[in-house]
Amino acid sequence: MSPGNRLRWLPYLFAAGAVFWLIELTQFAAVVAAPAGREQLRQALLTAGITNVNTMLTVEVVILASLEVAAVVLHGAAYYGLRAYRAWGWVVAVVVAAAWSLLLVGIPILIFLLRRPTRQAYGIS
After folding, report:
1. Distance from C-alpha of 30 to C-alpha of 61, rounded to nearest angstrom
2. Where does residue 71 rank: exposed (0-12), middle (13-18), buried (19+ CB within 10 A)?
3. Which residues contact 84 (CB under 8 A, 6 or more apart)?
């Protein structure tokens, strides 16, 4: 079986991850944009004992939005790189799978990516 047939599903797994993170980013943006959502975030910070609520809210929004945008970009890069059978696509996919493996979800994908036939299909020996 050629590498294309055996690995055909792999890029679409990362495309689904990009869509997932786009949805998460949209939901977070909606919460931040809505006055009631911002008030809920402020109340959570006040309940946690934070005194400078506005500054912490800004820091929280910037950090979470940046992480979600980075996740979208990495998943998208893995999709396009794997689809074109590029070595850099394999590297990005390994980074993304390693990050997901912190939640145990990415371990099977990481193992699949690190197998010799998968590496050789992407030009990694």
Report:
1. 12
2. buried
3. none
For residue range 48-107, what is the model confidence (pLDDT) as tens digits?
A: 888 899 999 999 999 999 999 999 999 999 999 888 888 888 899 989 888 888 877 778
| Helices 10-33, 87-101: inter-axial angle, 10-degree rounding | 60
Q: Is the pLDDT of residue 46 over 70?
A: yes
Closest alpha carbon to 14 in 111, 121, 106, 118: 106
Domain that holds residue 35: 3-121
What pLDDT is attached to residue 3?
A: 56
**Which of the 8 DSSP states describes residue 51?**
S
How many domains does the chain contain in total? Answer: 1
